[in-house]
Amino acid sequence: MALAWGVLIVSGCLETLWATALEASRNFHRLGPSVLFLVALAGSMAGLAYAVTHIPLGTAYAVWVGIGAVGTAIYGMAVLGDPVTAARLLCLLLIVGGVVGLKLLH
Questions:
Q1: Where is the protein found, in the record's own terms (predicted)?
Q2: Which of these, 53, 52, 62, 20, lies nearest to 37 by C-alpha position?
Q3: Which residue, 70, 67, 65, 72, is CA-closest to 91?
């Protein structure tokens, strides 16, 4: 079970990677980010597929999406100049709280 959770966490991080690579690919006009997008997407999906064989689908999917969403939002704020506001940070904390809650209640 611990392995499934570890794979799920890595898969969520890969979701952040493929989302940021998608943006960097400039609509698939840049080869490097486009290839990174495809590799990270495949790895992320494969990891999620493995995790759902050991973790309930709803929990696994919510954790996976939560990690990807928070990671991508933080990347946007830290690297891309997306606005950093108290409201945005509070919303990200709510997502993290929900993900942690799902893990603890599993």
A1: Cell membrane
A2: 20
A3: 70
CA–CA separation, 73 and 71 (whole Å): 5
Reading the chain (106 residues) residue by residue, the pLDDT tens digits are 899 999 999 999 999 999 999 999 999 999 999 999 999 999 999 999 999 999 999 999 999 999 999 999 999 999 999 999 999 999 999 999 998 998 888 7
Number of domain units in the chain:
1
pTM: 0.90
SS3 of residue 83 by DSSP = coil
- Under a CB-based contact definition with an 8 Å cutoff, are residues 5 and 103 in contact? yes
Tell me the one-letter amino acid at 104: L
Could you tell me the CA-to-CA distances from 57 to 31, 72, 91, 98 in Å, in that order?
34, 22, 24, 16
Q: With the C-alpha atoms ordered 50, 55, 56, 58, is the resulting torsion angle positive or negative? A: negative
Separation of alpha carbons 81 and 37, rounded Å: 21
